[in-house]
Amino acid sequence: MSMSAAPSPARPEKPRVGLFVTCLVDLMRPSVGFAAVKLLENAGCVVHAPVQTCCGQPAYNSGDRGTTRDLAMQMIEAFQGYDYVVAPSGSCAGMIKAHYPELFEEDPNWRARADVLAAKTYELTSFLVDVLGITKVNATFDGAVTYHDSCSGLRELKVKTQPRRLLASVEGLTLVEMQDSDVCCGFGGTFAVKYSDISGAIVEAKAKNIEDSHAPTILAGDLGCLMNMAGKLSRDGRPIQVRHVAEVLAGMTDEPPIGAAKANAIK
Amino acid sequence: MTVHSTSPQFKQNAARALNDSQLQKALGNVKQGFIDKRQMAADKLPEFEALRDSARDIKNHTLEHLDLYLEAYEEKVKASGGHVHFARDAAEARDIILKICRETGAKTVTKGKSMISEEIGINHHLEANGITPVETDLGEYIIQLRNELPSHIIAPAVHLNATQVEEDFRRVHTHLDAKRDLSEPVQLLTEARAVLRERFLAADVGITGANFLVAETGTSIIVTNEGNGDLTQILPKTHIVLASIEKLVPTLEDVSQLLRVLARSATGQELSVYTTFSTGPRRSTDADGPENYHVVILDNGRSSMLGTAFEEMLRCIRCGACMNHCPVYHAVGGHAYGWVYPGPMGAVLTPSLIGVDKAGHLPNASTFCGRCESVCPVRIPLPKLMRHWREREFERHLTPATVRSGLQLWGFFAKRPDLYRFATRAAMGVLGFAGRQRGRFSWLPMAKGWTQYRDFPAPQGETFQQRWKRERNGRAA
Known about the structure:
Number of strands of chain B: 12
CATH superfamily of the domain at 22-161 and 200-303 in chain B: NagB/RpiA/CoA transferase-like
Distance between the termini of chain A: 40 Å
Order of helices and strands of chain A: EHHEHHEHHEHEHHEHHEHEH
Helix content of chain A: 40-55%
Radius of gyration of chain A: 18 Å
Structural class of chain A: alpha/beta
Helix content of chain B: 40-55%
Strand content of chain A: 5-15%
Distance between the termini of chain B: 61 Å
Radius of gyration of chain B: 26 Å
CATH architecture of the largest domain in chain A: 3-Layer(aba) Sandwich
Shape of chain B: globular
Oligomer: heterodimer
Number of helices of chain A: 13
Largest sheet of chain B: 6 strands, parallel
CATH class of the largest domain in chain A: Alpha Beta
Structural class of chain B: alpha/beta
CATH topology of the domain at 22-161 and 200-303 in chain B: Rossmann fold
Number of domains of chain A: 2
Shape of chain A: globular
Largest sheet of chain A: 4 strands, parallel
CATH architecture of the domain at 22-161 and 200-303 in chain B: 3-Layer(aba) Sandwich
CATH topology of the largest domain in chain A: Rossmann fold
CATH class of the domain at 22-161 and 200-303 in chain B: Alpha Beta
């Protein structure tokens, strides 16, 4: 997918952004959604969050094209009116950008609508950097962090430098790269449950790399991966904090880290 | 019928592999070696990405006109004095090879590395008919001693450690001094070389695979690093090339392009140590070479992939980069896949060749991380093709009933946003309340797959949409 083809030459002064929070953020960690809202509003966007459920990826990756198409059409209807669609997830943005068009290969009308939506959909950090040209955020975070590149964002949307660039502007924050930051954490959606033995082994290797980086905090841009890594780290008693990158970039780290008890919350 | 498959037991195979400490130790080498070497080789060649495009295009063109190139190739082989045999399936290929061996009165057959020979199970067939096959690639030789299938398409014994090989050599090479020192890998290599040298000289027939069959010239090409392929095809009186239909390439120029991506993708070499061309039997002016030259070309289900979504899989040039970069392969190794071809390429190819009813697990056992596609030298969209298999399984009701009904229930809510918001608000409220102290669950009903290996982080309680409506009422679109 070309990133440069999407924005129209005449970018609106105050772009109207439809925020697709993604089903996981909606249900599990709304604070990530509000961090995204803050980042987008600080960048001059008008943020809307239309009624939404899921992009359909679980059905798509399970081979259920019918349900996937139904959910894709629901998404297109809900989000077509905005200048941009932004999601705090490379996986869900990638679903819309890279896969929606191919769902409607035999339906020119819906294909055209899917193409339009795909062209204006972005992962959060890539939208801020690549489309809005943001290079700095106004946030502080004390300490070292390491960053996990979630697979779909990295390989489908080429999200790699954007979150790092923004993190570099966070006051007090040092980014320490771990070994194999671009290797899968073993989540893979339903894979984590269907092939739990294998998923468990893959996330074990990831947890070791995180620990070996000696950073007390691990960040990533996809909540699925984050829940997987957080669940493994806490199961093994590794005292490492896990957060979505948007929380740190927005300076909204009052909520306890993912999978952590309220008492351990870092203020 | 082809080689027996344990693909239906993939989950059990995987569980066993994960608990096999020897295997886990050996798999560590795959993770480290291949990946860095490929990356360095690719970085050193500025046109590497363009070469991948060109490799893809060459293979696509060939597949579009495969019938013509097969015919042209056959003509050229005949003109050079060789014979071409087309085998519809594994049984036909076995019969053809056995017949050639019998006609030459063969007692022993040496073999270069060939995945097709694994696919048709030729070794067992020859043995059952009183002919001794001898694998001459070191890795293949080792797994032949162990009566195993290769666990990797270019490194067949990558699942083993040196100490295991030492045990095998002591068990089989009983004519050698029992007190000999085999503690160093080079000593194992020297011993294998000495044992195999006698076999090369005694063999009546040599069987090799082919990396490419060149239509323009009737040439078959193998790439090797040990030189065993050369001795296999030059010393015996009869040389049999065993290859599948998609190995065809139009011209030598095309081959030179494909060779530039093959070794780099596989081992990070610019070229393999040996790139061996063979065209027909020995000519009167040749110093050496076989008297008889046969090519057996196997279909075994491939032609029915042409014109379907899976045609793209036939571009594969068997470099192994996909499995070298696969987190699932790294975790369980090649044998867990249960048939001849492991890793992502096997997850797509195996269902085509033995049926998705048997190999259904393979395309499902992927996180779709996409690393395989990102390194494939002929740009096969492996995750997309695995997803196609999942779609066929879903259509044919091969998807497990629990997954199916779970999906149906989830889909029912996801398609009804108002009901969805109501139901999720209630569910997250309960879960958030229950998990408010610890922030996570070590156990949840019906979530054993998750909680067996990791905790389940507790939700914050309120959903985003609930809070958005509360805080920004009237502004929500």
